[in-house]
Sequence to fold (126 residues):
Amino acid sequence: MTEQAQQGSSALDTLKLVAAIAIVVGGIASFYSLPWPIWARWLVVLASLSVGILVALQSAQGRMFWDFVQGSRIELRKVVWRDRDAPPTWQVAMLVFVVITVLTLFFWGLDWGLASLTRWLSGQGA
Fold:
């Protein structure tokens, strides 16, 4: 019995998603086809995008997406953000900068040295 209800709702959900896409595409197409001022055409696009999102959120996939967004927001609140003015943060940032600079110079020197050696061995260097 529940399988029949889920199958019926999935077809309806698919129809909702197709309708949402059609609404958004229609809004974009109207932007190019209507001879209205640019601000009015942008209002049509924004309105179609809003209505399309509302229609898509009425489907099972849209509800799952909204639950995911809500759960992500809850998890984001649990993150402890460090104070960016804290000394360890600046120390780590400077250490990363110094290491990257040193490695850049090392690999530049290695590349230059190998290129010079290759030119010398191949006889192309003067």
Summary: Helices lie at 2-33, 38-57, 60-78, 87-122.
